[in-house]
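Whiteboard transcription, Tuesday session. T.W. wrote the structure tokens on the left side:
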């Protein structure tokens, strides 16, 4: 992303798995951490520590990245972001998304993990087409 600063925008949407009870709480945790400016730090911990996504683990991760744990706990337990998560889920369903990660680069769907160069090629093609 640093390579394209000012040229592209990254928008993250949440699509918790229907078959994993803790994925909804993990989405809530990422957004609650984002309230304190630590979305990406929490996101990385969630990916690295999956499937340990229970409430106790999430609270531990919050402390690990230096969040105000009391504020984080209130947001997590109060499901402060449930409306946003549900809106994102409905969008994913409308777009026919069935797997994460799924990315769209100017409407071009990319399903699954890919190496950086794969994304770079698409971004370069889209930037060239925009000129």
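and on the right, the sequence the group agreed on:
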């Amino acid at each position: 992303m640093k390579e394209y600063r000012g040229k592209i925008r990254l928008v993250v949407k949440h699509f918790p798995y229907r078959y994993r009870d803790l994925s909804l709480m993990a989405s809530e945790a990422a957004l609650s951490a984002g309230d304190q400016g630590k979305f990406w730090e929490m996101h990385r911990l969630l990916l690295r520590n999956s499937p340990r996504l229970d409430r106790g683990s999430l609270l531990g991760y919050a402390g690990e990245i230096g969040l105000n744990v009391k504020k984080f706990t209130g947001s997590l337990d109060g499901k402060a972001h449930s409306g946003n998560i549900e809106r994102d889920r409905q969008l994913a369903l409308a777009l026919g998304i069935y797997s994460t990660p799924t990315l769209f680069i100017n409407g071009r769907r990319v399903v699954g993990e890919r190496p950086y160069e794969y994304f770079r090629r698409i971004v370069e093609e889209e930037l060239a087409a925009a000129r």
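Someone added at the bottom: Residues 19-97 form a domain with the Glutaredoxin fold (CATH 3.40.30.10).
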